[in-house]
Design brief:
By secondary structure, the protein is of the alpha+beta class. Helices cover 35% and strands 20% of the residues. GO terms for molecular function: DNA-binding transcription factor activity; sequence-specific DNA binding.
């Protein structure tokens, strides 16, 4: 049986009093990191929101007037983000998704699944004063920006999750600075593909959930959505951040994680979720999670054996 961490915000590995400035900082409330009395007005603050509850719950916060807020999903979750009386995002948010809220903006989040986010609280000067004049550009596009499956952000921030050890503050801030500078210099497309309608997306997701163990090709999913292959593929990626085949593989990996918490042999797990060989399963699993199935199983078992803190 898995160890059950505290319901939300608190992460045992981040609260060791021997490391009062260990990063990421704890959040006792969503997007409200503990500052330990330090003034960090000119620095990037990094915090973590870990909430393993399964029941639906709603949180809200207003970004300070002198800061941008950047959230990076460290695991796939289901969420609805609302701001300025409009829906910014609703549905399954893949791991490595990045979203941004501008200064003084109110954001409401409804979580419908366990979640794990790294939060970067960035002074607005990082997008203006600290860039060379030649690289200055309007920042309006940053508000409510969603980058689904931003693999750069996912790989960059992964070291901040640690393995039970505190992260050096200077190292953590370097990661935050790199992320902010990358956003400031990012080129945005002038045209945007519309996302797949929610009702079509739900039909496709339900179809994949029921049939992920077998081969599912693009024409089949397009028929389920009621669209041409070309329009479906583009709209599906806009809605989820995945190409259809990538989404199928990701669902297989998610189901495999459940089986890896049993004593089933790896080859049996691979076949049970639709892979033809253990080798292919291991390659895909590591590509998505950063760990081999065996390593993931060992770490999961270690967490369970340690018991609640």
């Amino acid at each position: 049986m898995h160890a059950v961490p505290p319901e939300h915000g608190h992460h045992p590995a981040l609260s060791d009093k021997r490391h009062p400035r260990a990063y990421p900082l704890e959040e006792r409330a969503w997007r409200r990191p503990e500052q330990n009395g330090a003034s960090l007005a000119q620095e990037i603050t990094i915090s973590r929101w870990l909430d393993l509850r399964t029941a639906s719950r709603t949180e809200e916060a207003v970004t300070p007037s002198d800061r941008y807020f950047i959230g990076v999903a460290s695991r796939t979750t289901r969420i609805k983000l609302t701001g300025e009386q409009r829906t910014i995002f609703e549905g399954v948010m893949p791991e490595s998704t990045l979203y941004v809220s501008a200064p003084s903006k109110r954001l409401v989040a409804r979580f419908d699944a366990p979640c794990d986010f790294l939060h970067f609280h960035v002074p607005d000067s990082y997008f203006t004063d600290r860039l060379p004049i030649a690289q200055h550009r309007p920042t309006q596009h940053l508000n409510d920006l969603i980058l689904l499956r931003d693999m750069f952000a996912g790989q960059l921030t992964r070291p901040l999750l640690g393995r039970g050890e505190p992260i050096d503050e200077t190292f953590a801030r370097c990661i935050g600075q790199t992320l902010a500078m990358r956003l400031a210099r990012l080129e945005y497309p002038r045209t945007k593909v519309g996302a797949l309608a929610n009702w079509r997306l739900r039909r496709v997701q339900d179809h994949v959930k029921q049939n992920f163990r077998r081969s599912i090709r693009l024409p089949e999913l397009a028929r389920v959505a009621g669209l041409s292959r070309m329009h479906f593929a583009a709209q599906f990626r806009a809605a989820t951040g995945y190409r259809p085949h990538e989404y199928l593989l990701a669902q297989r990996v998610e189901h495999a994680k459940t089986l890896l918490n049993t004593e089933a042999p790896l080859v049996q797990v691979a076949l049970a979720v639709g892979f033809c060989t253990q080798a292919h399963f291991s390659t895909v699993f590591k590509g998505i999670t950063g760990e081999t199935p065996a390593d993931w199983r060992a770490r999961s078992s270690s967490r369970a054996a340690s018991g609640p803190v």
